[in-house]
DNA sequence: GGAATAGTGTCTGTAAGACATTATGCC
DNA sequence: GGCATAATGTCTTACAGACACTATTCC
């Protein structure tokens, strides 16, 4: 059955309308994507019989231009008119790490008015998780203006004030990024207001040493989300190499969650997310460990 | 200690740079916000001794202009250059429902290239939860072009194909919105691809009767998030009136989750999210029920 | 008494927390 | 044998699922 053409109050069909539409009528904000590219790195150990320590790392770029010249920012850039937001994020990811085909998800879109002093910019943040071992070593490594920073995340304190019909709860979180002798550090306050049965959450930068724009907030938010998602999804395996030991996996969990886990409970919990192989670690100064891989035939959690 | 001015390769300080910056250099997408305003409504019951049925409702607007003239869309509009994204969302919310001070959160930012036939538009979707009883009755009620639709969400089937290094899992979800004799209906397919240890999720509209733009995808995503969040946060109380019975609360859970719950387990679970009052329901055709309120002094879950 | 819903008691199975114990390779 | 880590056994506690049962009001 043929559709009868729908016309608007000017008698135009949709096709006619679109041809006459002027896209330049309104003043517009710019749109960018900012990438939170996380990986896990091993640190060399003094005692060769001990396991090597691991740390969570984040890729940052030192700004060579105003604004925030000399400060460190997340990799990112403008979204083109002919590419999707996700494509823009993938493009930025590839240009920084030479990697595609890794886990990536959109986190949040930051739309405050003053976030960029040049002009109105709205920015979508995307988180990518990469396995350091499959990363091209050059990526963001040799460049003087880019590098992997170890991430530290400390909850400083939590205050609480009672109100008539609710309360205000404030949390202060210190984020420290370290790359050799470069240390960036800042504090984000998260204010949760509950009034009646309405809950509001606000994030503010309370202290900032070395972070450009509002990127400190983005980093705090990303770590919070990473922590949450690690508990109820399998995304952690995106940070692991194809073969890993259960102890390594447990360490990565512990680094991300910021607390220690008990081995028996841990093994029970991840038991059906992994498959064992016939291989073992070699040449450790102690009992070898069985190697596992991510069990891909299991569906999502 | 006075800071020494940082200058860039052109010898400009940040202040000088910003004064000379031309914000109009790049072609830009437009930015809009789209609102998913949910509420819970009671339906009149034929048998007065039975409890009244409840349903989840979503506010939609019929388009009076091209494109998608006559179809139904989420309320929304352009984000101004002088307002934050969140302010734009609050403004839209207020203009549709005359309500502010309700629960609202950003869900996702939709950035595909072809989502609006007029031009490139990027849209942030926000979800708001409102208690129908405190809603001004007129809002979106009498207007012929706006209204509350009952939401139905059915998982149709889930197929799965094994691949060499992973699998593809497809889920088809039917969304039906109904308002008296107006029925909108569509199917969203969610495709989850796992290759190696990389997981990707894509959403496509497989069938569409009456929804404008990609709003069907937004609705599906919002319900998915609402379901998830209801299980591990207290947001559900934003849909409840100040006083409610535990049975009512359980019904609302059941409507959102799409499955029945057992009363004893339910009561244990929400026990410390609520406080009992001295009041009871009256004039029901059966045993009166104690009224509870949201327990606000308890912190977040 | 019957209809309808409100609310509680309790058994069972599963899973997490905690701690102890055994196993293994390398020096 | 001792160091360091790998891996498992098992006790306890907590809690979710299931079902049966009691309670209360209105007709």
Features:
homodimer, 301 residues, alpha+beta, Nucleoside Triphosphate Pyrophosphohydrolase, Arc Repressor Mutant, subunit A, 2 domains, 10-stranded mixed beta sheet, 3-stranded antiparallel beta sheet, DNA-binding, WHD_NrtR (chains A, B), NUDIX_hydrolase-like_dom_sf (chains A, B)
Level-2 CATH architecture of the largest domain in chain A: Alpha-Beta Complex
The largest β sheet of chain A comes out as: 10 strands, mixed
The overall pLDDT average of chain A reads 88
CATH superfamily of the largest domain in chain A: Nucleoside Triphosphate Pyrophosphohydrolase
Give the number of helices of chain A. Answer: 5
Largest contact between protein chains? A-B, 73 and 73 residues
How many beta-strand segments of chain A? Answer: 13
Estimated structural class of chain A: alpha+beta
- What is the fold named in CATH at topology level of the largest domain in chain A? Nucleoside Triphosphate Pyrophosphohydrolase
């Amino acid at each position: 059955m043929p559709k009868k053409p729908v016309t608007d109050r000017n008698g135009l069909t949709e096709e006619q309308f679109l041809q006459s539409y002027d896209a330049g009528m309104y003043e517009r904000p710019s749109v960018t994507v900012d990438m939170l590219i996380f990986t896990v790195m091993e640190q060399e150990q003094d005692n060769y019989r001990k396991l090597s320590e691991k740390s969570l790392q984040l890729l940052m770029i030192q700004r060579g231009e105003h604004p925030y010249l000399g400060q460190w920012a997340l990799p990112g850039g403008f979204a083109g008119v002919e590419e999707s937001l996700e494509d823009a994020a993938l493009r930025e990811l590839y240009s920084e790490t030479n990697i595609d085909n890794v886990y990536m998800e959109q986190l949040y879109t930051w739309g405050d008015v003053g976030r960029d002093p040049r002009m109105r910019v709205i920015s979508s943040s995307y988180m990518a998780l990469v396995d350091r071992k499959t990363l091209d070593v050059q990526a963001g490594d040799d460049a003087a203006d880019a590098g992997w920073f170890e991430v530290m995340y400390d909850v400083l304190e939590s205050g609480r004030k009672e109100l008539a019909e609710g309360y205000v709860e404030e949390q202060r979180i210190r984020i420290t990024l370290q790359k050799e002798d470069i240390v960036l550090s800042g504090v984000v306050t998260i204010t949760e207001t509950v009034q009646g049965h309405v809950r509001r959450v606000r994030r503010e930068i309370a202290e900032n040493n070395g972070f450009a724009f509002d990127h400190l907030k983005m980093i705090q938010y990303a770590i919070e989300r990473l922590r949450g998602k690690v508990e109820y999804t399998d995304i952690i395996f995106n940070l692991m190499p194809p073969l890993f030991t259960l102890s390594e996996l447990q360490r990565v969990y512990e680094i991300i969650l910021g607390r220690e886990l008990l081995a028996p409970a841990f093994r029970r919990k991840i038991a059906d997310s992994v498959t064992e192989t016939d291989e073992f670690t070699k040449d450790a100064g102690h009992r070898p460990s069985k190697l596992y891989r991510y069990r891909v035939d299991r569906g999502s959690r």
